[in-house]
Structures are given as structure tokens and as C-alpha cells.
Amino acid sequence: MTEVEHTPTQPSRDGHASQGSSHSRPWYISLLFALAAVVLLLGGAWVYARLQSPFPFFGTAYTPPLSAPILSGTDQNGNAYTFAPNGKTTALFFGFTHCPNICPLSLTYLNQLRERLPAAERQNFQIVFVSVDPQRDTPPLIKSYLSFFGNAVGVHIPEPQLAKVALSYGAAYTKADIKGPDDYQVNHTTATYLIDKQGKIRLLWDYTQLPQLKRLEADVHEVMQ
């Protein structure tokens, strides 16, 4: 997912409060205790969710599943496209064709996942790539790019509609390392949304999980039930 750096600021020190400092706890010790409490709380919540779920998904499960927002744009062939429940299980990914690493790796793993599925499941599994770089990613460029990753659907959505679609999915993107009007990178959410045939978001895979194809396959099997 998009990373946000946060550096804790040291609490201000009051000279008058220094009296009895031998009995006061240093700020960083308090911070460590607070962080430990948060880790224990989150860990407990994760374990509880796993125990409550009848199937321990490898990805992060949506409990309860949420309806995937409908999105409309132009596909890589220049045709009007609307993503809506169509009886297929969908791996939906936000990315861009100039992405140097995460996007091509993610699409490669998703295509390998599809190839691992039994024929009947493979026919009911699709990969949808939504570009977060509508300025450069024209439908023909998306088509050329996706040709390296098997049979995927590419979607071009112009601004400001794209921003609304991304927000509806809880995804984020922003230009970075700008060197010119068409020379820049895009920082973006790198999760893959697994959506069932009824159009419900069932779970998220972080891009670091995608190499674990056997575990992804188990998630897909369960979602297709």
C-alpha cells in the first residue's frame, strides 16, 4: 500500500517539571510501552478475526465483504467499459505503464496465478488493470503494455472521474519525482482487490504476498465457492 512516513516528535520539556525527575519515566520509554500496547491490540484483533473466519484467508479479508464500486472508462481496445458484477472472480489492480517494478511484478504474478487455476476456474477469473496515469496511459499504450502479461482488461479513466473511483476503493495515487510534463513517477496503492462473482470485495493482497502463488490460489478457490 502507499507508505506514509511519520516521525514521532519528542514531547517538550518543562524546566519546572524536572523536579522529581528521578521518578519520571523518559518519554521514549512511554512511547515504547504505547507502541507495544498497539501491537498487542492489533495482533489480538488479527487472531480473533482469523478464529472467527471459517477460512483463514492469506490476504486481508473484508469482514463483512463490501460491494465493489462500479467504475466506467475506456478499455484497451477503445471500447466503453464498465466494471460490474458479471459472474467472474476479479483481481483488480491500480497501476501505470511506466511503473518500474511493482506493477509489472504484480501483473506477472497475477497472470501466473491465473495459469495455475483449473480450466473451469480460469475461465471465470479475470484481471482488471486500472491506470492511475491517464495523462500518459492511452488505451493503445495500455494494450501494448498488457500484452506482456496475458489476457487482462485495461481501463483508462480520465480525471476527475479517476480520483473519485480511486477514493471509492480506498486507493490513493499522486505524481512524484516530476522532471517534466511527461517525465514523472506515480506513487500509488499497490494492493490487489479480490472481488467475487457477486461483485463483493472479499480480500486484499499486498504486493509482497503475490509471490506466494499456492496461497493465493487457495484464496481464489474459497472465494469461488
From TrEMBL:
Endpoints of the signal sequence: none
One MF annotation (Gene Ontology) recorded for this entry: metal ion binding
Residue ranges, annotated region (Disordered): 1-20
Lineage of producing organism: Bacteria, Thermotogati, Deinococcota, Deinococci, Deinococcales
Record family assignment: Belongs to the SCO1/2 family.
CDD domains recorded: SCO
Record carries keyword S-adenosyl-L-methionine: no
Binding site for Cu cation: C99, C103, H188
Sequence intervals crossing the membrane: 27-49
Protein name (record): SCO family protein
